[in-house]
């Protein structure tokens, strides 16, 4: 099996060298691009498995690169940026990024984010082969039957709770913003109704989490959104 190919888009030489050395040490193949224009060409011609993207590039903003790539590719994009405000993270995630890592970062955290991304890719490929049932720890969703189970006991979910659970399950490991979730679940009329989303998420957690105060399935990203963790 070919080793995963990772496209590193970073104009800072020191940071780029740190990332590619880390990837090389852990047996990942990589290509490096110092500008947005080169990054788009490399992404189109080599179809990388994952893209690590800095937002502050000399020729174009990283958000624009995400939007361009998303017009033809679903390749996971992990943003690595010095921009640490929630608004920056939300903008990148809503544009189509899959994860967001803030500089300065540790090598261990970068590798952990990559492992999560590759697990999600492998899960989605397996789901494509057998996509009627989702299994994550003790949680099971029977998409064909329209029902969910915890430790083989059927969960009594409202239609909204079930839709929320399925949306998170189909994006395991990916941070979904409040805006994305509300639009997917309720449509544009509910856009930005974060208070209602929190209520439904709280009731869903009570039904699937062994300890809702210390959730193991649904992780909150304060001010940004939610992510289903791989258990």
Automatic annotation (TrEMBL):
Example GO CC term: the record gives: cytosol
| Organism name | Blautia argi
From the UniProt record, list the coiled-coil ranges.
none
Q: Which residues form the Response regulatory domain?
A: 5-118
Q: Which residues bind DNA?
A: 131-230
Q: Where in the cell?
A: Cytoplasm
- Name by which UniProt lists this protein: Stage 0 sporulation protein A homolog
- Briefly state the protein's biological role: May play the central regulatory role in sporulation. It may be an element of the effector pathway responsible for the activation of sporulation genes in response to nutritional stress. Spo0A may act in concert with spo0H (a sigma factor) to control the expression of some genes that are critical to the sporulation process.
């Amino acid at each position: 099996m070919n080793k995963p190919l990772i496209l590193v888009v970073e104009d800072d030489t020191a940071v780029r060298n740190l990332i590619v050395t880390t990837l090389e040490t852990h047996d990942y193949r990589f290509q490096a691009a110092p500008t947005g224009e080169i990054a788009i060409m490399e992404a189109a011609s080599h179809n990388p498995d994952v893209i690590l993207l800095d937002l502050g590039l000399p020729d174009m903003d990283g958000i624009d690169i995400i939007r361009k790539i998303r017009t033809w590719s679903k390749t996971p994009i992990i943003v690595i940026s010095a921009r640490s405000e929630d608004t920056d993270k939300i903008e990148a995630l809503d544009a189509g990024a899959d994860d967001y890592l803030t500089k300065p970062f540790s090598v261990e955290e970068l590798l952990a984010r990559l492992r999560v991304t590759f697990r999600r890719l492998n899960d989605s490929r397996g789901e494509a082969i057998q996509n009627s049932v989702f299994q994550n720890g003790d949680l099971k969703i029977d998409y064909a039957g329209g029902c969910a189970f915890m430790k083989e006991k059927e969960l009594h979910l409202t239609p909204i709770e079930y839709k929320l659970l399925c949306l998170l399950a189909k994006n395991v490991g990916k941070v979904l913003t409040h805006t994305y979730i509300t639009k997917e679940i309720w449509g544009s009329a509910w856009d930005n109704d974060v208070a209602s989303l929190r209520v439904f998420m709280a009731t869903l957690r009570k039904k699937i989490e062994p300890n809702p105060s210390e959730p193991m399935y649904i992780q909150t990203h304060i001010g940004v959104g939610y992510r289903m963790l791989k258990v």
